[in-house]
Amino acid sequence: MAAPARKRQRANTSGDTSIPLPTTPNTDYKSLISTFDPPTTQTLLLEAALNHPAVAQSILTKHAQLLAAERSRVLDFDHYSKSVWRALRDADRMSGSRAWEASFDVTSSIESAVEKMVKSSPAHASLGTKKSALYTLRKIYLVGEETLENAMLDVVRGMSEEEKEVLRSDGEWVGKMEELLEMGDFEGIGEVLVEMGIGGSDDDGSTTKDCQ
Questions:
Q1: Average pLDDT, the chain
Q2: What's the CA gap between 182 and 9, in Å, rounded?
Q3: How many CB atoms lie within 10 A of CB 201?
Q4: DSSP code of 141?
């Protein structure tokens, strides 16, 4: 008896040249995904989240875990102030063109430190991390008032009212900030204090202290 004839495969007339997807359960997806650039990976992950609730839930859970870990971690930025003062001391010992070049290096190092502290102190960072950033920024105010104050404002504006209340209760830090304000060269510090809920702004833009 003759074998039944196989159904002839329909010719591909649409011009579709796509590669058939593998169906083996042993596909090494980790290796495949590692060949993608970040934008491609993000696009595929977004599509998967929008089309598959289980994937979306996994993303939300992971994000919550990362935020919780960030809130429980306290970064200490004090080493930045120490390195800045050490660089300033070394620059003071130089003379001539070497001193001139060193001053630019010091400025660059300070600006880099300020940028790193602000970037590491987002709204979801721990209160301890935000406090360390503000305390260290006060110590290295020699970077220049605008850079210093803008950095402080970035950190303070990411704080909750409860976190601000904790910082307002630190009389030593508040006192040192008010000392900077009274020096006259750092008037923008008043804006930081107002943002913290310490004092108020007069009509001329100056800051008045709250009566305790």
A1: 76
A2: 87
A3: 13
A4: G
Q: Considering only CA atoms, which of 103, 75, 78, 79 is closest in space to residue 91?
A: 103
How many CA atoms are closer than 13 Å to the CA of 79, on its beta-carbon side?
Answer: 3
pLDDT band at 148 (very low <50, low <70, confident <90, very high): confident
Contact, 74 vs 101, CB < 8 A? no
Q: Which two tokens stand for residue 63?
A: 């994000």
Residues 6+ apart with CB under 8 A from 192: 149, 152, 153, 156, 177
Residue-wise pLDDT tens digits, 82-99:
887 777 776 666 665 565
Label residue 211 by pLDDT band (50, 70, 90): very low
As a whole number of angstroms, the distance between CA 51 and CA 54 comes to 9
Arithmetic mean of pLDDT, 46-50: 93
pLDDT reading at 166 higher than 70: yes
Give just the sign of the alpha carbon dihedral 150, 83, 120, 167: negative
- For tokens 């301890």, name the residue: 128
- Looking at this protein, which amino acid is placed at residue 67? L
| pTM score, whole prediction | 0.54
CA distance 110 to 103: 11
Rounded Cα–Cα distance for residues 122 and 103 (Å):
30
Rounded Cα distance, 157 and 195, in Å: 7
Q: How far is CA 36 from the centre of its chain?
A: 26
